[in-house]
Design a protein that fits this description.
Number of strands: 7
CATH topology: Immunoglobulin-like
CATH class: Mainly Beta
Helix content: under 10%
Oligomer: single chain
Number of helices: 1
Number of domains: 1
Distance between the termini: 17 Å
Radius of gyration: 15 Å
């Protein structure tokens, strides 16, 4: 996962690229494989949830997410976790600049 997080005037902008093949049901059927895509994404700063989303097969390969949240977060860690259809999870973190 690639993460950039920058705070300006009390608002943090996060840009995240999750590396995942995102194989939809239709693609999987054509290729004779099992569908697998990111189904859930959560971002936290400390114990506070700052972003949460249920996603579907309609995100592109290696999806790019951009979101903003309020708070004095400079120097704190932004922790992002995604879960895919097979139950695999990936967690990554980055200090907010």
């Amino acid at each position: 996962m690639r993460i950039k997080a920058k705070e300006k005037d009390g608002i943090t902008t996060a840009k995240v690229m999750a590396k995942h093949p995102m194989m939809s049901y239709a693609e999987a059927k054509k290729k004779g494989k099992e569908a697998n895509f990111i189904t859930y994404v959560i971002a936290k700063v400390g114990d506070e949830v700052v972003y949460e989303a249920s996603t579907s097969q309609f995100l592109s390969k290696n999806p790019y997410l951009k979101f903003k949240f309020k708070g004095e977060n400079k120097g704190k860690e932004l922790v992002i976790t995604w879960t895919d259809l097979s139950g695999k999870t990936k967690t990554d973190k980055k200090k907010i600049k």
